[in-house]
Specification:
By secondary structure, the protein is of the alpha/beta class. It contains 11 helices and 9 strands. It has helices at residues 7-16, 33-45, 63-68, 73-82, 93-96, 115-118, 122-137, 149-162, 191-196, 199-212, 218-229, and strands at 2-4, 22-27, 48-53, 87-89, 141-145, 167-171, 236-244, 258-266, 269-277. Bound molecules: adenosine monophosphate.
Length: 285
Amino acid sequence: MIIAKTPAEMRAIVAANESRSRGLVPTMGALHAGHETLLQRCRTENELSILSIFVNPIQFNVVTDFDKYPRNIERDLSIAEHHGTDVVYMPNTDDMYPEGFRSHIEPPSVADPLEGEMRPGHFRGVTTVVAKLFNATSAHRAYFGKKDFQQLAVVRRLVEELDFPVEIVGVETVREEDGLAMSSRNVRLDAASRLDAPIIHRALRAVATLHRAGEARVEALENEFLKVAGQSRSMRLEYASVRDASTLAEIDMIVRPAVMCVAVWYGEVRLIDNIELGPGSSAMQ
Ligand code: AMP
């Protein structure tokens, strides 16, 4: 496994592997089984499998969240190795954003609602770093989790609007046995919150069940979420909203693919999750 520490080192590796198909899994490290699914998929579908690990300061709108973001590089490297990763790209902040750095990618409009509203500047940081990672790796395919549903939609649209020659692959959310979506932030939950947190997925599943039974009115579906999530002892709800799956615009009725996106807080820890609804979604099967 080769480690590249600067954009120049990464590009040199690409040049030496010009003829091989290249897959990229962008992460911020603290790898868990969700990331591992992305790595496996990348390994299977590409000749050169690249993992990037970079805790991107410009996508954190709250500095303490960046400071407290879990980091465990030794463990990450052994997981990467285990999955047959060929290259780990782990640049440092000064090489990514040298003194005087100012160029940014303005995110597409799908970045405006939900996370975009709650975390101003977040997606501008994401689109900028993703563009830099695409440029440094010249990946043919890049793998993103559906856990961050809006991020996936933003990246898809970014690639369309700016003609990046990369195929974006969305990967299903990997969950703990009790349904909690795996996230690097879960380790920051205290014991009581960790016990309570599976209610997020339970409430989302209740919404999917109601929808499957024929309820297509968004208001009724959102109320179902509130009813189940209301039983939580400690969760603070930030938003729970059913949206069009590709634009994330508000809708009144589900007639096309849709998604319910939620963001909640347990103490200082913010968690997001979602469930796809409507025609073609697994919730309808
Ligand atoms: P992060 O390191 O949290 O920025 O995540 C890196 C990539 O892993 C993103 O594309 C995430 O959507 C994806 N990811 C994070 N958690 C999960 C999960 N539980 N299941 C599938 N993919 C995930």
